Amino acid sequence: MAEGAAPVLDVRGLKTVFRTRGGEIHAVNDVSFQLRRGELLGVVGESGSGKSVTMMSLIRLLPSPPADIRKGEVLLNGRDLLKMSPEALREVRGARVGFVFQDPMTSLNPVFTVGDQIMEPLREHLGMTKEMAERRAVELLELVGIPDARKRLKSYPHQFSGGMRQRVMIAIALACDPDVLIADEPTTALDVTIQAQILELVKDLRQKLGMAIIWITHDLGVIAGIADRVMVMYGGQVVEQAPVGELFANPQHPYTRALLQTIPRINGPRETRLKVIEGQPPILSAPLAACPFRARCEYRHDACDRMNPARRPVDGRPVGQGHDVACHWQAPARVEAAHA
Amino acid sequence: MLDTRPAPLVQVEDLRMYFPIYTGILRRHTGNVKAVDGVSFSIQAGETLGLVGESGCGKSTVGRAMLRLYEPTGGRVVIDGDDVAHLPPEALRRKRPTMQMVFQDPQASLNPRMTLAQIISEPLDEHTDWSRDKKIERVHELMDQVGLNRRFINRYPHEFSGGQRQRIGIARALALNPRFIVCDEPIAALDVSIQAQVVNLLEDLQDRLGLTYLFISHDLSMVRHLADRVAVMYLGRIAELSPSADLYARPLHPYAEALLSAVNEPDPAIAARRKRIILKGDVPSPANPPVGCNFCTRCPKVMDICRQVKPDLVEVEPGRLVACHLFESRQAAGTTGAPEATERNQQGVSQ
To answer: Which of A239, A228, A217 is nearest to A296 (CA)?
Structure first.
């Protein structure tokens, strides 16, 4: 992860709004981040925090209406995806950016064989002949660890188990050797032993192929094991962003800190009582005029009600490069919060 | 082994739950899905037993068959002195108030057309002849207990968030003062920040009301936090049943070991150091389980005997029960000596 190298993906001030009958929902609010070559960025947040909508907005996968991308730039190798023609965008999706969704059953087409579905992007985007595509499809299935790959090309999705289907999804996403792979809760629907298989696979593939990955999850455990950098989202905005070790050792935002304390550990002493984040996530029916976390925050003060905090650097490096946080409150220097 | 302790509140013996498979035009009975295949355990009054395993291992089916939401194929389920699996209908109805369930999906388990008052008082309508006022008073009391604002009594489920809905489900389960509650993945559908709220509530209620829980979950860290003892299930059978502290410190069964090693610890330092045991392949179909040990197709320590003989769940250390041939020699060491002898012996018995 060469510092200073031009990012593969540069997202600036992204804002997405849903227009519904009940009014507007401000799902993504001024989200900016960069992704460098070979880097794995973990995106953490609860349901409704805007993490999936952000990533769907990047490659304009959201139906419009109701979704409306109001503002922002999404630069993939310098080209703005939000200004692209539908044809050019079609080329980007699948070929330059791969997507793996949470539920492999609903994102695979049940009436086509797995082979057809892997070969489709190859023939569509790379113009391969049927024979070439088939050879490549076998390679891809072998790459993601599906035994007897040639035979399995003729199988239908229902003939695969959940973990195998997710491997197929990954194979499809990797088919055209994308620059960026976006994985939206790819292991959430899987059991832990299968999840472990997929995580090992992704680590392995990253080393082999060197692509940049965005990994969306609500599971901090997964993030700890796999990410280089973590972005924590709340209320449709980025509340904290840091290298993975730094985030877990020195969390700054009260939400991140609380989140790390609400989950019980499998090692170490057993907690007598779990820490609770009281209250509910905010409903984003208006643009944020104040901190979205203030209603649940134990460090709330006047400024939090008056103004939505901007991201500020924590470790001296510019926002987006090192550790930054969007909070009015200043955490006491270097606390052992995560392990206390 | 339980001689020194008081009689357990819940005693499950050789519980079996088979779902028949019918095939062909004549719908002939051609086989069974052995969802639960000979499960035995006991739960002391006031104790929380964790039941963990991956999807399809039969853990939810155990909970449902115990409360006779399914008709068990075989075995006994003694709850507070009565064998629930064999109670006649009227006696079962009278028994229901003592045993209740909290379901995984509060959205699906609450009737969207009923108000909160109607949902929580439904068990009271069914099992008591109380006046309306008395029922409302009890509903208020229950709402206080689970932390729901009394003002919400005439609202409908869709007006509540997931965590609040789960509180409604818990209040309903508590309405008749049960002694035993099966919690079937009660937090799986909730966000992380809400999970802790519900878990703390369950713990408070247990302290206050002396409840006994069977806590079914696939979240191994949460089970460690909640349970006194934990049963690990694999493909319809219990692989290991140990006190929580022992299991998490040193799992004995190879499956329990692999399962625990796969849990993601939210700490990059530990994640980097730790060695995972990555299991190959997938869980076999419960319609056609292996002849020998159910785990033999994926076990990293598999031996010949594992493919031929199903191991029994036996106590290999004080309080720790394991179903694995690796530990059989340890258990039988005093009597037979050589492991080979045990092996031959076992095979002879089973054939």
So the answer is: A239
Is the alpha carbon torsion for B58, B63, B68, B69 positive or negative?
Answer: negative
Q: What is the pLDDT of residue A67?
A: 86
The side-by-side arrangement of strands in the sheet containing B28-43 is: B28-43, B10-23, B74-79, B82-83
Identify all chain B residues contacting A262, using CB atoms and an 8 Å cutoff. Answer: 192-193, 195-196
pLDDT tens readout for residues B97-136 = 999 999 887 778 899 999 999 999 999 999 999 999 999 9
Question: What average pLDDT values come out for chain A (340 residues) when binned by 10 residues?
Answer: 70 91 88 92 88 89 86 91 88 86 81 91 88 91 83 88 84 87 83 82 84 90 90 94 93 91 80 80 84 89 89 88 90 54
- Answer positive or negative: Cα dihedral of B185, B191, B193, B198: negative
Residue A15: other Cβ atoms inside 10 A: 19
Q: What is the pLDDT of residue A197?
A: 82
- A27: how many CB neighbours lie within 10 A of its CB? 22
- Measured in degrees and rounded to the nearest 5, phi and psi for residue B105 equal -105, 100
**Closest by alpha carbon to A252, among A261, A238, A265, A239?**
A239
User: What's the burial of B254, exposed, middle or buried (CB within 10 Å: 0-12/13-18/19+)?
Assistant: buried
How many residues in chain A? 340
Dist. CA A43–CA A216, nearest whole Å: 5
Tokens of A267: 């090692």
Domain positions in chain B: 253-351
pLDDT digits (tens, 9 = 90+) for B35-76: 999 999 999 999 999 999 888 889 999 999 999 999 999 999
Cβ within 8 Å, pair A265-B259: no
Phi, psi of A57 (to 5 degrees): -65, -35
Nearest one of A183, A110, A162, A204 to B281, comparing CA atoms: A162
Q: How many CB atoms lie within 10 A of CB A298?
A: 10
Other beta carbons within 10 angstroms of residue B2's beta carbon come to: 11
**Which of A28, A13, A39 has its CA nearest to residue A233?**
A28
Cβ–Cβ below 8 Å for A224 and B265? yes
Average pLDDT, chain B: 87
DSSP B24-74: TTTTEEEEEEEEEEEEEEEE-TT-EEEEE--TTSSHHHHHHHHTTSS--SE
d(CA A180, CA B227): 42
Sign of the dihedral defined by the CA atoms of residues A214, A216, A220, A221, in that order: negative
HSE-CB for A325 with a 13 A CA cutoff: 19
Query: From CA B12, how far away is CA B62, in angstroms rounded?
Result: 10
Q: Which stretches of chain B are DSSP H helices?
A: 59-66, 89-95, 106-109, 116-127, 132-146, 162-174, 192-209, 220-226, 244-249, 254-261, 268-273, 328-336, 339-350
Whether residue B259 and residue A258 make contact (CB cut-off 8 A), yes or no, is no
Distance from the B96 Cα atom to the nearest Cα atom in chain A, whole angstroms: 31
Contact B276 A220 (CB under 8 A): no
Q: Chain A to chain B, count of Cβ pairs less than 8 Å apart?
A: 124
Tens digits of residue pLDDT in B271-289: 777 788 888 877 888 888 8
- Under the banding of pLDDT at 50, 70 and 90, the label for residue B195 is confident
Determine the Cα angle at B233 with ends B232 and B236, to 5°. Answer: 165
CA distance A168 to A182: 15
The ipTM of this complex is 0.75
CA A293, chain centre distance (Å): 21
